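From the shared-data thread, chain only:
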Amino acid sequence: MIIDKLIDRIAELKNPTVVGLDPRLEYIPEDIAAEARKLHGPTDAAVKYALLTYNKGIIDALCDIVPVAKPQIAFYEQFGARGVEAYLETIAYAKDAGMIVIGDVKRSDIASTAQAYSDGHIGRTDVFGVKTAFSRADFITVNPYLGGDSIEPFLKNCAEYDKGLFVLVKTSNKGSGDFQDLIVDGTPLYEICGQYVEKWGAGLVGRHGYSSIGAVVGATHPAVVAKLRKMLPRTFFLVPGYGAQGGAAADIAAAFDKNGVGAVVNSSRGIIAAYKTQGYRGMGYADAARAAALDMREDLRNRDI
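Structure, as tokens:
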């Protein structure tokens, strides 16, 4: 089961880090950008070349110490079809390097539209009678706001193709409380959502006691992290908000169970753009990313101190 593969890989590397592959053009070292312009001019093909080359350097530098990569699709979709190609090829490259991949797509809709999203990102799409997988992502993020029927197609594909979800429960952004903290019959909405996630995952629990249907719970809300960990014993957490967004290792300690299992912690620009603040130049960006990832691993190991 995919959740067991994730937990086993974390244990093997002794590291619950997720690297967020959220490239911006201003992050691309000039050596790569110059080569892209030389080959393709100021075109979408140049963008694809730059994003993919940059990502491959990060993946090569981290795949033996970081278990999980999480490309955020918005940073690719903004560049059109070539950007989406870079997203899919980044996933494939990370998978071939031995990483677990979370496609951060935050999809949601109803009926046939939800089915199409699910088939495209974690299932199979019928191409003139041939079931075809277009993405190799192991997990994706989904938004539950449209209700249970919007999640059902994703759950079916998870069961059929051994995939997983991380459902938005309590996000790390400052405005998350506008809706997620609303009180419904005496209970915060995020708690109700968490209870649904626990229920949705009941049939996909692996040998480690966690389900392939997980929850996104932001590091910027440590009290909520602790509360939800107690409420949702089978639900694995994806924890954004560490580092650049203000979350510290101590803030996410409660996301883990008594055995130190139960969560992965994301850092994006704090790793992939580390070279901009750490004194590395040019193609040293990958070395800087590795150094930042090692620092994060050590920080997370000391989270309970």
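The mean pLDDT is 95.
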